[in-house]
Amino acid sequence: xxxxxxxxxxxxxxxxxxxxxxxxxxxxxxxxxxxxxxxxxxxxxxxxxxxxxxxxxxxxxxxxxxxxxxxxxxxxxxxxxxxxxxxxxxxxxxxxxxxxxxxxxxxxxxxxxxxxxxxxxxxxxxxxxxxxxxxxxxxxxxxxxxxxxxxxxxxxxxxxxxxxxxxxxxxxxxxxxxxxxxxxxxxxxxxxxxxxxxxxxxxxxxxxxxxxxxxxxxxxxxxxxxxxxxxxxxxxxxxxxxxxxxxxxxxxxxxxxxxxxxxxxxxxxxxxxxxxxxxxxxxxxxxxxxxxxxxxxxxxxxxxxxxxxxxxxxxxxxxxxxxxxxxxxxxxxxxxxxxxxxxxxxxxxxxxxxxxxxxxxxxxxxxx
Length: 368
Description:
By secondary structure, this protein is α/β, with parallel strands linked by helices. It is built from 14 helices and eleven strands. Helix 5 links the parallel strand 8 and strand 9. Helix 8 crosses helix 9. The longest helix is centred in the middle third of the chain and has 17 residues.
């Protein structure tokens, strides 16, 4: 495992395999890659993570103990909270877990127990995902999710909080942290394979995206045709074609053992709820959002970055990885650890490696 220090983000490139596909295959594969981008895994018992057994929260507990909060007095937001059973110490932190595209609170089931032994843990379903509302006609943006996070901290958590996000969830946390300087709601940031935008249109400095931009724009047009979007969406989430979704997820993970039938069922479930298709289309065809490279310099709070080196969606040799690894030692509040053999979703792929870096960092945060 390599330790680095970094100070910025760059948007995610497409996997190199896209360049070798035919035009027809690209159209299908690009959407599948966006679908799999953050659709990550969950199961219901203690599981082996490749380096040991990790105690997972039961899915039934997450479902039964989740709560609802009205965002802006209008939108129903699903969240889960688990407090430390031990006496709170000065080193205890309050943390908020923010999932990525297509995922939800159970995405963090392998992390909640480890974190809640000494910290208070909140997890949230972003608007449009999981058990949160998926309002018809809503235009999803990175800025709206960042606003949701800050409002949640202010109205529900009501304590300085460490934001922990994966992929687009990480980017939403970055945006939130860059906007809350006067409210002091964010205690620190933990970014797991942070995305460069809400979708691939953010990556203008990657030759692969430049080459495929006309195709991406065509796909945007096709996705706005209801019949085409519905057919593609149903194909990917179809529970009766679990191998299709399982193959997509396998390409995202370094630890293939964590891709199983339970994972497929959990991911397919929320996709069948009302409004899921509209959210899918709005996110993939909407604006990519603020460039994180311009936001990172505004953040003075401590930042921990954990990055799976087998990530084909935001690879270390792409713009994001190159930018991070070119900046070691320039800002003392940033630290990056590369996790070997890990894919796009480290917290579920190899939670043991994540906890190895995350837990000590949280314990030391009170001294910074």
